[in-house]
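Quick start: what a row looks like.
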Amino acid sequence: MPTSRLIKTFAACAVVAAFTATTTAIAPDPLARFHGRHVDWHACALGADDELGQKLDAAGADCADITVPLDYAKPGGRTITVAISRLKATDTAHRVGPLLLNGGGPAGPGLHMPMTTSKVMGKAADRYDLIGMDPRFVGRSTPLDCGWNLGSAPLRSAGADRTAYLHEVAVARDLARRCEHAHGDVLRYVTTRNTARDMDVIRDALGADTLSYLGYSYGSYLGEVYTQLFPGRTDRMVLDGVMSPERYSPALLRGAEATNEAALHAWASWAASRHGTYGLGATRGQVLATVQHILDAAAHQPLRIGKTYLLDEHVLPAVFIGGLGSDLDGRRADLADTVRLLARAADRDPVEPSQVFAAQLDFLLTGAGSAPASQMTAIICGDVAERHGTGSYWHAVQASRERFPLAGPLANNITPCEFWDQPAETPTVLHNDVPALLVTATGDPRTPYAGAEAVREQWPSSRLLTVDGARQHGLYGEYGNTCVDEHVNAYLRTGRLPTHDLNCEASH
């Protein structure tokens, strides 16, 4: 190339480079109105009756409301608020930064979590600003409540026959209609991807370049989505009860039928060994027969619990499934007490619920559970399309019923998502690699072990911490397993992942 042409080429490249640098430097930030803001921290208690706020204040926490766009595609439009709490780091010499906490759900509130998490973290907590968050439309954030007269929408079972299932179709259609009528203008924005975007606005508001993160169950999925949308903005990540994006669907328990039935059988063996205490049967088979007697009685006629509650075949399975999330003796005893009461109700004897069971029934059967059920359903339906035709669910229920008589009709039942508007965005697909600590149990009845294995394979830089033989959902700080707690705390304290995958023994 002649020298003159070479000089001109270099000059042209220099002009292009200078123009590119200039335009890059002055490119407007579409979220400028939400970035760089001062956080208005204030006391957490909202009044004399605010028990949670008073506990947060007593623990030394601060609270704030972060303004975020309703629609991130139109950041100049309508805004909502996301409520957060903070326990500040006390070891400022070794401060890591913010650790955002999510307890799962979907739609689980999180303002309380800095108080509970700091206890299990021990001295590692001193290095973090522990951040609790009520996700968008949850808790103290901008609210959403579809005005349902029940709280069991995401966890209803199909029932014993096609007539019962057709009732479920009508219920699902009606719940979707009510939500559209109450909140049709915002439902398309009640999504995990938008919650992840809110997290990044919170990160910026906290003045941090990166977020550390601890997420349980659905919170693991939220963390995965955040890493995909905002690569390079995470520091130390712990996902407990790991859900893979491929498994995430409106039927949250679909794929977990086998682990739930196995948990039921294990609990039945436990109860049989304590027949003298609970009287549910002296063998596993006898205890399972008692459970089936209860289910059959509810299918024939709803069980009357106290003067207020009627527990039918559509809601009753959720009571059992809810009691199978842990193999700790205390949780198993709670389920045995409940089943003993249900067995009497199945015999049509008058029974009175305990205070705890009454609160559970309020949540499942009345409007007391409307808001959280509405929020959970809206998030799931807003994330993943579910339009299979009403007959397909019944076929799936029937196909699963013989092998999984309790979990199958619940996990494969129709949901309001069949009648929901199509999601605004396609589901998140992971195609990244994140150095995270994945905590899981081989017998987890909520997020099966295969999901954790899938994420471990997707993220070669991650490490898998497995508790062999445990039928437990939620391990760190919840299972009383010293091995798990110490490994997680060591990672949070040092930032160094183990050199290889680890195993801990179950607590029993």
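That is the whole record. The chain has two domains: 34-143+189-249+431-505, 153-186+251-419. The two ends are 78 Å apart (CA to CA).
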